[in-house]
Amino acid sequence: MFDKILIANRGEIALRVIRACREMGIASVAVHSTADSDAMHVRMADESVCIGPNSSAESYLSIPALVAACEITGAQAIHPGYGFLSENATFVQVLEDHGITFIGPSAAHIRIMGDKITAKDTAMKLGIPVVPGSAGGVPDVESAKKTAAEIGYPVIIKATAGGGGRGMKVALDAEGLEIAFRTARAEAKAAFGNDEVYMEKYLQKPRHIEIQVFGDGKGRAVHLGERDCSLQRRHQKVFEEAPGPCITPEQRARIGKICADAMAELKYSGAGTIEFLYEDGEFYFIEMNTRLQVEHPVTEAIFGVDLVREQIRVAAGLPMEFEQDKLTIRGAAIEVRINAEKLPNFSPCPGKITQYHAPGGLGVRMDSALYDGYKIPPYYDSLIGKLIVFGRDRPEALARLSRALGELIVDGVDTTVPLFNALLAEPDIQAGDYSIHWLEKWLAKTYG
After folding, report:
1. Which residues lie below 8 Å from residue 439, measured CB to CB, with a gap of 6+?
2. Which CATH architecture has domain 132-201?
3. Is 24 within 8 Å of 62 (Cβ atoms)?
4. What are the boundaries of each domain within the chain?
5. DSSP H or E segment with residue 341
6. pLDDT averaged over every residue in the chain
7. Among residues of the chain, what percentage have pLDDT more than 90?
8. How far apart are CA 113 and CA 394, in angstroms?
9. CA 270 – CA 164 distance, rounded (Å)
10. Which CATH architecture has domain 4-88?
């Protein structure tokens, strides 16, 4: 087992890893930019190292600075959290070259799943169902028209190197295809430096269902059910729950086994999430995230497991403790992402926290790095906390979420708490009847 782990991240996820380290008797090292010198993860870690100025590019994304921090502190491994360098194959290779363990999958697996086309091809070879679409990149408009005619309209054009909704355009018919194709390529080039795009069938009212997988890197893997992440704004998740309210035990067992078997064949190591669009009882592969997800706590709640602890154990070469026949769902869990944003435009709202009180009680977990007097810097993501609730069933989890939101106090900045209070009053949310388009339509109707 490792003696010391460096956490290459900030905020609540850095705290999450620090807590796991402390419970395992492992020393933790926090890294921080100059803007985060008074951040909670810096205060909570056993050691801290300043790795650069405010800019992420010069601090949290600086591979030389992170390697140097490991060498200075003697950290034997790095946990990347999510975001930043968590899915950067070059980073993993550099760490390996320096004898530092990356707590996550191999560089090869990150590369495979980091390219959308390669990931889809790999999924197909592994028996994972995929959305009908182009065999690879679509080089020009004429090729796009031919592919669209084969798979049928509407279609969606996506950037090969895409993410976060950038480089994605929908064409409802042949007339709109040309402008959608050119716009998607231009956005992809601007955002990722790569204008290659591919095309898929556009589903009308799909849900976003993701399967949590975990592998030991030696040919053994399990699944930990699904999460429904359909409530999204601009392709960004805001509300996640497990188990999915529309998924039957039979569907869960079927798609879960497909995913676990695929990861076993790949000899995948650590935590990963295979994301699907789900419609009319069918699952269609979107992508795989080769890291811990923001919403991992809902899976932890319903299975009673610690995913970060298991990540660390497997990375250290210990046997995976998860056994498929012992992973049993109990109850229901929901997570809402609390952002420092001003409604209705969701504009970032950095500033000083004048008062903070976290909700508590049975079945309530608040993952946050806030404290009274903390100044939220304007340089990073606006996520300031995750409120997770657990209940014996979905109605109890919803009631507990409503109660917990009422207890949460965050003064000094605007937050997205009012959004969740409003959503909980909606019959569709209470019934679990929503698709990936529901929230955008609701926002347009509610705020105009």
Report:
1. 231, 232, 233, 238, 239
2. 2-Layer Sandwich (3.30)
3. no
4. 4-88, 132-201, 207-447
5. strand 341-342
6. 95
7. 90
8. 33
9. 23
10. 3-Layer(aba) Sandwich (3.40)
* Residue 226 region by backbone torsions, left for phi larger than 0, else alpha for psi between -120 and 50, else beta: beta
Distance CA 113, CA 125 (A): 13
Per-residue pLDDT tens over the stretch 284-298: 999 999 999 999 999
- Judge whether 396 and 423 are in contact, CB under 8 Å: no
Task: Report whether pLDDT(163) > 70.
Answer: no
Q: Which amino acid is at 73?
A: T
Q: Which of 407, 109, 92 is nearest to 267 (CA)?
A: 109
Q: Is the entire prediction scored with pTM above 0.90? A: no
How many Cβ atoms sit within 10 Å of the Cβ of residue 443? 16
Of 320, 144, 300, 307, nearest in space to 217 by CA: 320
Fill in the amino acid letter for 248: T
The three-state secondary structure class of 279 is: strand
The Cα–Cα gap between 132 and 198 comes to: 11
352-to-89, 112, 377 alpha-carbon distances in Å: 36, 42, 9
Asked if 56 and 62 count as a contact pair (C-beta separation under 8 A), the reply is no
Comparing 135 with 133, which gets the higher pLDDT?
A: 133
The values of phi and psi at residue 117, to 5°, are: -70, -45
Q: Please list the alpha-helical segments (H only) found in 25-81.
A: 40-44, 63-73
Taking a C-beta distance cutoff of 8 angstroms, is the pair 26, 6 a contact?
no
**Three-class DSSP category at 118:** helix
Q: Write the CB contacts of 251 (distance below 8 Å, at least 6 apart in sequence).
A: 281, 283
- Would you identify the CATH topology of the domain 207-447? D-amino Acid Aminotransferase; Chain A, domain 1 (3.30.470)
Gap between the terminal Cα atoms of the chain: 55
Task: Report how far residue 116's alpha carbon sits from residue 158's, in angstroms, rounded to the nearest whole number.
Answer: 9
More confident call, 245 vs 201: 245
Chain-centre distance for alpha carbon 382: 15
Task: Output phi, psi for 32, to 5 deg.
Answer: -155, 155
Cα separation, 126 vs 141, in Å, equals: 31
- Active site annotation includes 291: yes
- Give which of 103, 91, 89, 38 is closest to 60, Cα–Cα: 91
Find the catalytic residue in 220, 227, 291, 313. 291
Contacts of 45 (CB under 8 A, 6+ apart): 7, 14, 18, 28, 29, 30
Cβ burial, residue 155 (10 Å; 0-12/13-18/19+): buried
